[in-house]
User: Which sequence fits this backbone?
């Protein structure tokens, strides 16, 4: 919803009222023609709009209101009189020693438009729009001329017109302060963080955003009285996946790790099994969804997704709006699927440690792991996306709690 105060100056051509004549010669003094006064008057503009979720279309309805009334009064100086113009005094010959005119204007405009912004950069948008415009204009001009020897001459003119038709155009907007608004949104979701460290610009789907969405979903469910209000959110931590829009993890995952006999045995086993696979980043890249606001919105939807049906709808929306996506988006969707399947199977934590898959049940016991015999399940897929699908398939085959 928008509102604007307008201070307008309405003007119209052909508003010559009278010109003076010399009583002695009868010659007109055309260089002193009197015209209707035009003054600045207040008006306002109000609008109501809606941003449609699909494809970022914006519908808007805008109404403009303006009213004006001006008055012009003149008395002829000594030795002269006023000759009223033929425009108002049909046939001419109307003279007066004084006259008074009142002009009233009512102006109403209603605009209905549909538009879609295209973001050329972070601070400049180009928005083509199209729609309809309807306008109503009502005018009245009342003139009273007085001459001592005759009765007053009165002219009362009215004009009423309306029009409607299509309108289209192109608008350019410079989003002054856009970065500040995005930073404030990020601050609202994640908290202030470390003002001098890397945490302040951390990835958007990290712990802060996940926790925010979880609390939001639980609060809404609690207010609705739903049984899912106390549902425990699964934690997914995969050592071959970096989730978010940061620069990624170190290429050396063993740096700073404590070395002992146990870790040496695990490293030897992993090397023998060929468990090392390349890292993959799970995110919505800037070159796929260029607008930051839309990327944040899709991250929010993924964080709040609690069923596979909702996840499929999000995937379909991405394809419809932005086209085919790459491996990074596929990885993000698969990580979300793993979380959803884990929650459905009563798993509170899903972690990988090289080829080992460690799934902890939400039974309340600290060591209630999902195991095959006495060992953790082993992952065999050689590539990141295949391994993510392997984890999702494993969780799907687990018995329901």
Assistant:
């Amino acid at each position: 919803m928008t509102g604007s105060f307008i201070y307008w100056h309405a003007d119209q051509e052909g508003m010559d009222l009278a010109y003076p004549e010399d009583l002695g010669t009868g010659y007109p003094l055309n260089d002193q023609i009197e015209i209707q006064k035009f003054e600045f008057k207040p008006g306002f503009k109000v609008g109501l709009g809606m941003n449609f979720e699909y494809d970022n279309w914006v519908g808007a309805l805008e109404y403009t209101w303006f009213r004006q009334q001006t008055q012009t009064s003149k008395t002829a100086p000594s030795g002269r009189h006023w000759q009223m113009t033929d425009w108002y005094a049909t046939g001419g010959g109307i003279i007066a020693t004084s006259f008074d005119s009142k002009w009233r204007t009512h102006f109403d405009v209603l605009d209905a438009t549909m538009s879609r912004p295209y973001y050329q950069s972070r601070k400049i948008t180009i928005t083509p729009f199209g729609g309809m415009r309807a306008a109503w204009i009502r005018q009245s001009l009342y003139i009273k001329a007085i001459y001592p020897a005759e009765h007053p001459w009165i002219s009362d003119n009215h004009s009423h017109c309306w029009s409607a038709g299509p309108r289209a155009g192109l608008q350019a907007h410079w989003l002054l302060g856009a970065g500040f608004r995005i930073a404030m949104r990020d601050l609202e979701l994640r908290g202030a963080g470390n003002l001098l460290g890397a945490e302040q610009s951390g990835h958007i789907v990290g712990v802060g955003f996940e926790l925010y969405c979880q609390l939001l979903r639980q609060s809404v469910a609690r207010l609705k009285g739903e049984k899912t209000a106390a549902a425990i959110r699964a934690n997914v931590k995969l050592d071959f996946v970096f989730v978010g829009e940061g620069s990624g993890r170190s290429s050396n995952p063993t740096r700073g790790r404590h070395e002992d006999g146990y870790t040496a045995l695990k490293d030897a086993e992993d090397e023998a099994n060929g468990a090392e696979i390349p890292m993959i980043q799970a995110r919505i890249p800037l070159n796929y969804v260029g607008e930051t606001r839309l990327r944040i919105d899709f991250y929010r939807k993924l964080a709040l997704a609690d069923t596979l049906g909702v996840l499929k709808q999000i995937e379909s929306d991405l394809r419809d709006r932005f086209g085919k996506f790459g491996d990074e988006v596929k990885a993000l969707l698969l990580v979300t699927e793993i979380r959803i399947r884990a929650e459905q199977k009563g798993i509170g934590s899903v972690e990988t440690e090289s080829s080992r898959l460690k799934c902890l049940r939400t039974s309340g016991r600290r060591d209630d792991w999902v195991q095959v015999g006495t060992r953790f399940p082993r992952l065999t897929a050689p590539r990141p996306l295949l391994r993510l699908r392997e984890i999702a398939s494993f969780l799907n085959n687990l018995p329901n709690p």
